[in-house]
Amino acid sequence: MKVFITRVIPEKGLQLLQEAGLQLTQWTEKRDLTPAELIAYCKQHDALLSVGPNKINSSFLQECSHLKVIALHAVGFDNVDVPAATALKIPIGNTPGVLSNATADTAFLLMLAVSRKAFYMHKQIGKGQWGFFEPTANLGIELSGKTLGIAGLGKIGFEMAKRCIGAYGMKVIYHNRHTNQEAEEVLKAEKVSFDELLAQSDVLSVHTALTPETKGMFNKAAFDKMKRSAIFINAARGGIHNETDLLNALNEKVIWGAGLDVTNPEPMAADNPLLEMPNVAILPHIGSATVEARDAMAIMAAKNIMAGLKGERLPFVVNPEIY
Ligand code: GLV
Ligand code: GLV
């Protein structure tokens, strides 16, 4: 059986697949495959291990309905037309849980960096602008005792909240479709309406999936309802915020600062004005980029591939309704 892998993945995942006697093709170029290339490769393989933003849409799935399994090297599956895959009985796998620590660390890092303008000052030093000790210059804001608002409190949001409570004794509020019982019990998190989340958060951190409901959820109307001292963090998906509205909100001091691990589009243009703003910190979608998380993701994706090729239920399945 043959597996197509759209990026070089950690050795631990490859080893499992090799030990299972599978024939592997890895795409090693430092660019994404075009849709036509992806289809052409998949037609010669039995399974797809997809890394990155490949569009697994309905036309891809129709063309490649022979695939026995599609394993994502990611927790997010907004790039997949899941109903179309389900209709064709193609199991889709993902990697939940193992990247929650790494992604929460990224959101926490962005929060701190924004609160102290750290990325900006680092760049200024490189431009010869060390500055002087001025009691009123380079001022950040402190996080102790502030309110953390989480949009989409799942596994990652839970870890972010834990960090903010442990480090700063922050109060946690959240907005979800469903109540997160564990977060309410363990973290004393309080479920609020979206408007209350906007009005009360000192730090508003996004950890929801990108869906038709959350697309563009953080737009002008939302930023207008936030505190002028608020920090907006998005380590989930760039499509959840409107980047022009965010830029305007920062320019007009409607909110205080923003930290993004995800942008819209990706990659962000090198001349994007957000990159020059003092109260902004941006990272190139590295939420899960730790040795620990990526090894675990590669192993989970490999296990999904192996199960799918044997016709067994995937251990980490996005569309269990096919079984
Ligand atoms: C990365 O963004 C993921 O969804 O794992
Ligand atoms: C994030 O919200 C998750 O489900 O891990």
UniProtKB/TrEMBL annotation:
It holds the Pfam family 2-Hacid_dh_C. GO terms for cellular component: cytosol. It comes from the Bacteria. The keyword Ribonucleoprotein does not apply. Signal peptide: none annotated. Residues 109-287 form the D-isomer specific 2-hydroxyacid dehydrogenase NAD-binding domain. InterPro entries: D-isomer_2-hydroxyacid_DH (IPR050223), D-isomer_2_OHA_DH_cat_dom (IPR006139), D-isomer_DH_NAD-bd (IPR006140), NAD(P)-bd_dom_sf (IPR036291). Keywords: NAD, Oxidoreductase. SUPFAM superfamilies: Formate/glycerate dehydrogenase catalytic domain-like, NAD(P)-binding Rossmann-fold domains. GO terms for molecular function: glyoxylate reductase (NADPH) activity; hydroxypyruvate reductase [NAD(P)H] activity; NAD binding. Residues 3-319 form the D-isomer specific 2-hydroxyacid dehydrogenase catalytic domain. Belongs to the D-isomer specific 2-hydroxyacid dehydrogenase family. This is Lactate dehydrogenase.
